[in-house]
Amino acid sequence: MSKLTLLSNSSMKIRLSQEKGNLKELYLKGARWNGYESYLIVVDELKEKTYKDTESPLVLLQKRHKKKGEGIVENIKEFKGADFIVKEIWKLNRDSLSWKIEVSLKRNKRERTIQLKQLIPYPKPAYGLGVWSAQSQFPTKIERVGGLHLAYGDVCFGTVIPAITLYKEKKNVGLTISKPFELKTSKLAFSFQDYRNQGVEIETTLLGLRRDKPAIVEFIIHPHQGCWRPGLAWLYKKYPQYFDPPNKKVREIEGGYLFSHPFIKEEEIKSIIPYKVKWEELHVHFPYYGQYAPEEEKWENIISSSENLEANYPEFKGSKGIVSAEIIKQHIRLLHKYRIKSLIYFQAAGDGHLPYVTKKFPDSIAKDINGSSFNSPWNSCLMNSDPATSFGKEMLKMIDRFLKMYPDMDGVFLDQLCYNALDFAHDDGITMFKNRPVYSLWHCYEKPVKKLARKLHRQGKLIFANGPYNIEVQKDIDGHMTEGVSWIDVIKYLCISKPLLFLSYYKDAYQVESMFHQCLLAGASYSVFPYPSEGIKKVLKSYLPLVEKLYGRRWLLEPNPVQLPEGCDGNIFRGEKNDIIITIVSKRRSILDEKGIEKNLKAYVQFKGANKVKRAYSLGTHYQGKRRVKIKKEKRGLALIIPEHSAATVISLIR
What we know:
This protein is α+β, with helices and mostly antiparallel strands. Helix content is 17%, strand content 36%. Helix 11 packs parallel to helix 12.
């Protein structure tokens, strides 16, 4: 039997093989977690060889170090016949375990692409294991995700936080595994084996093994209670700068949002004033994508020159025309007259109008493996705005011009933080595809976004963004928009402390109500369009008092804090005045239908300080004003008896 090296503290204990260096045993809260041992796989794509530390021949040099508050084991692994050396570091801190891999190329060996696969083992039995990640199908059970290859960094099908949580609710134990947010890497995915197999393989692919620096990956494992929320709470505590809005004044614009253009009429603005619109996104003020601060005195706006843009966005009807900086300034003054803030549309990378960028910045056009551009809507293509490119240099200058042109704007609406592709025309220094240096485009946002946010925040202005690709690209952003219902269940996890806006292109009152249901579940603000119909006005009037309760909210991330009746969805937040807010939604009900009202609905909550709650009241969609909610102490929490509930209810607990 292999000898084992022990690292332990009050929350975790691990044993590592002295023969292979891999994790053999993992204990949480004194009980063994892992039903299998971990492993490390290195795939050399140049030699087309795979090395697995539990099976392949290797020479291991293991050292144990001790630092105050830390236990460290360093494994140097040299696989037989490999052109690289692997340094593996296991570090046990007070609240987490770090598993770091550094792969270094041997002298005079060719650069190449490698893959790293690290197994995080399941417990036995795995059936019924809870699973969470920042994606719409989570939280769920392990038996529902077997075979899922969950990519990091895609709002459509992946996760926007580089983390997963596994937990046993009945045993009240779980762990969260995360890449350090500050660590730049290539392509990351979590590959779930089914519940009869060993665990989750964390895959880092397209990783360049270069002569001048090692390829590095690292994951941190944090133990906690048997719920996904404490894992997210730990990430928030560890990386508050990624979750908190840099400009706290962004809370002032929680409320109604207007999708706008330079030629909107004052009558249109007046039509939405009763619905508490706080800000606008000023769009189509620019001549073409890729140029948002023209140096000309006047220019034709993009609606006038682009085919089908107005057809796809009927909200822009009547927005064609000649634009100038003075016209925009007049527009901002009009909005300010009605106490509506103006955030002007901008992109820091993303789209470039083909006739414009082909002439001006041909070196900056992102190219696919065949040397073709990545086409995007409105006769545009994807651009690389890294300052090493000519377009990147222009982007940094454009930011200065843009802020100088519109000194009275209240901030910037930053679009298309969701673009990513492999750019074969450039090299980001990290990524390689089939042994060839390439550029993962999300890296090109880093310097332009940082400059834009820094300059805006110095002036006390705001920056709101649309659908960020991952948590790193949005670090300096104050708040987020989710454009359409499919993204809100993803972006909401980036907004546990930041404001969230739901842009719904609704057509009728039922769609407006669906928007508000999503707002209540995620803690989001809402969108309003001019001249609402009578049916839409009715929905707005019913839901606005409920949504307003959520302004300034933060997610409550304690273990299992709320249990709702069957057939109801909901969430729980900590309010701006430190009250606890519970939202309850019955999606199959509508205030527009003639359906019954449920009476004496029962919910259960538990959180720190629950015993100090003195009173509770509810707001509902079928009545006006507050109604008293009965409170009964049960177990470690409170039972809430809600007098009446129809489509949606918001409860406030006052201490």
